């Protein structure tokens, strides 16, 4: 089974493209891995989430596949927002489902919203507005998040913005597959986290206002320093009795929070827009910000030593600093089924560092630099839209203090919510990395005009980066500008003559100019340089078929299919080639496979109907 392979071999390759570097988490819905994309130059990092259906019955798998594809389309759409991780790819392999997402570096809000440490009111308002501004976009897409909570809110390191992660809807793939007759619109399966989940969601009927309830609870948690599950209720109305923990709260904010967490969903704000408008009426946007602590990369690099002798630590290098994967709230992740709550016991968890988690950020930093040997967690979080679970280390001091450490004065802290620390300017290398990720994401989402502008900025910053010129070439192909695309690919090949991706793209640009015979040479060269390059094999086979060289086309396409059996284009073109050779039954089988992978493939459907008609069935 692939599941066992990935547990035993963290360097496995899935989708013939994504090399798994290390496991970030495991839960009832699957596993999450830090990975590298082997098809892109420099093999950029990404996050791979593996989801497993609960049964291998064909009918149930078909339902799981349909749900998975539907939810993936939603995640692609949501990824257009800057504060939601982009979905790069989704695929099925060995009856298991995979999501590939943007890697986001940051800190979960569980590191800032600490039990027993209430926030000032203006900081709570700023937090609520930050969350709701992202939810406005989510609700406009007709999507309910269903699992808003502090551990699913990341403070992105490069710009300090909140990023909303872990969209619970994709968990339907695992849950729903066990019973394909269940209607998700009226289901007894509820996805969420105890304390943040309202009554109607518990009953399997989430609404937009269910997200508002969760946001309100996060705000109350920050304002009071009390966990949602520890709040009392009014015995008669079932409304939350939270004000006793914050007697000094203003009437205006209290009224908004009360409405956000009403027991009856009909009494809440219906969507994020209305809740955001109410908050803006008591606190205009220009006056708000968040209090944050800041430690520079150089500070960390000069003062922190990692002790890796006793525990395996997953590390990432960013600039000169090293960061470790650390847990979110170990008690957060729950699945509620038919009104009964069960913790996801398969998650790898650690005992929380109470001495740290109960103190404000400034005190944590101060103590970490004053006491050698104290445990401290640094964080780089890879986000998977479908239920990321991070793992932690326990019992082993992760950091020791260098005796020649930078003094405590190097650590800065802003005590006033009206005086935010500006984000540290990115180094040229960091800015280049940011532009690479941004441009690639825009191109993969077919936002070609934006991608072209990003690649142009990147080339201005890094004119000798072959990857940037290749990305520009691919983008121009998407814009149907083959002449300019060929120039960009030529630039990439000057910098790297053995750049298989650039050769492949050069061939595609030539095909757009109806120069398929010339293009074929580029595809042949690309596959010779990179024998596992699936897309190049598909283009090679497709081009051979254009010239009626069907036997050669089938050989090339069989190579592509051996590398990736989920290439609808390879199966469809193979069907056409088999048809040309008079092997009609095999042609129909290949076309059926193409349509199974991509039901909307009009060319394959038309050819299959023609084939069946000629064969008399």
Automatic annotation (TrEMBL):
Xref: InterPro entries: Kinase-like_dom_sf, Prot_kinase_dom, Protein_kinase_ATP_BS, TPR-like_helical_dom_sf, TPR_rpt
Domain Protein kinase: 18-280
Keywords, ordered alphabetically: ATP-binding, Kinase, Nucleotide-binding, Serine/threonine-protein kinase, TPR repeat, Transferase
EC numbers for this chain: 2.7.11.1
Transmembrane stretches, start-end: none
Compositionally skewed regions (Polar residues) per UniProt: 335-348
Region feature Disordered, mapped onto this chain: 323-361
Name of protein: non-specific serine/threonine protein kinase
């Amino acid at each position: 089974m692939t599941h066992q392979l990935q547990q035993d071999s963290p360097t496995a390759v899935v989708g013939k493209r994504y090399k798994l570097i290390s496991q970030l988490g495991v839960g009832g819905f699957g596993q999450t891995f830090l990975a590298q994309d082997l098809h892109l130059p420099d093999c950029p990092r990404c996050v791979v989430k593996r989801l497993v259906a609960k049964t291998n019955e064909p009918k149930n798998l078909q339902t799981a596949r349909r749900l998975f594809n539907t939810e993936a389309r939603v995640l692609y759409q949501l990824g257009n927002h800057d504060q939601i991780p982009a979905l790069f790819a989704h695929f099925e392999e060995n009856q298991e489902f995979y999501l590939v997402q943007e890697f986001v570096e940051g800190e979960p809000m569980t590191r800032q919203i600490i039990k027993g440490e209430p926030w000032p009111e203006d900081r709570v308002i700023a937090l609520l507005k930050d969350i709701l501004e992202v939810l406005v976009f989510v609700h406009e897409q007709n999507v309910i998040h269903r699992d808003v909570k502090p551990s699913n809110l990341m403070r992105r390191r490069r710009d300090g913005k909140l990023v909303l992660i872990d969209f619970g809807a994709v968990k339907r793939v695992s849950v729903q597959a066990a019973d394909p007759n269940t209607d998700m619109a009226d289901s007894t399966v509820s996805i969420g986290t105890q304390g943040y989940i309202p009554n109607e969601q518990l009953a399997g009927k989430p609404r937009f206002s269910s997200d508002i309830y969760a946001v309100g609870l996060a705000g109350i948690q920050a304002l009071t320093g009390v966990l949602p599950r520890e709040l009392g209720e009014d015995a008669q109305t079932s409304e939350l009795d939270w004000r006793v923990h914050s007697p000094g709260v203003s009437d205006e904010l209290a009224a908004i929070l009360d409405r956000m967490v009403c027991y009856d969903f009909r009494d809440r704000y219906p969507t994020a827009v209305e809740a955001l408008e109410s908050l803006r009426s008591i606190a205009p946007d220009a006056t708000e910000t968040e209090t944050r602590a800041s430690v520079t990369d150089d500070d960390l690099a000069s003062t922190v030593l990692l002790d890796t002798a006793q525990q395996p630590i997953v590390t990432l290098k960013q600039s000169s600093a090293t960061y470790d994967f650390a847990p979110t709230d170990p008690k957060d992740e729950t699945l509620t089924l038919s009104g009964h709550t069960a913790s996801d016991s398969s998650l790898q968890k650690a005992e929380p560092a109470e001495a740290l988690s109960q103190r404000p950020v400034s005190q944590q930093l101060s103590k970490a630099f004053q006491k050698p040997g104290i445990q401290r967690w640094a964080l780089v979080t890879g986000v998977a839209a479908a239920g990321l679970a991070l793992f932690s280390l326990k019992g082993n001091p992760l950091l020791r203090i260098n005796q020649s450490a930078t003094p405590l004065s190097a650590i800065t802290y802003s005590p006033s919510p009206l005086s935010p620390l500006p984000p540290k300017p990115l180094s040229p290398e960091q800015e280049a990395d940011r532009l690479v990720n941004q441009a690639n994401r825009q191109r993969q989402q077919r936002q070609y005009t934006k991608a072209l502008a990003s690649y142009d900025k990147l080339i201005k910053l890094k004119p000798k980066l072959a990857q940037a010129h290749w990305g520009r070439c691919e983008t121009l192909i998407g814009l149907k500008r083959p002449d300019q695309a060929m120039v960009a690919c030529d630039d990439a090949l000057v910098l790297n003559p053995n750049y298989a991706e650039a050769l492949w793209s050069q061939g595609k640009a030539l095909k757009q100019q109806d120069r398929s015979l010339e293009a074929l040479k580029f595809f042949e060269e690309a596959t010779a340089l990179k024998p596992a390059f699936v897309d190049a094999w598909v283009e090679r086979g497709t081009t051979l078929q254009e010239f009626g060289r069907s036997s050669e086309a089938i050989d090339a396409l069989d190579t592509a299919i051996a590398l990736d059996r989920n290439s609808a284009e390879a199966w469809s073109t193979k069907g056409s080639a088999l048809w040309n050779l008079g092997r009609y039954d095999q042609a129909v089988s290949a076309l059926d496979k193409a349509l199974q992978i991509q039901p909307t493939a009009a060319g394959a459907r038309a050819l299959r109907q023609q084939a069946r008609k000629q064969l008399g069935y």
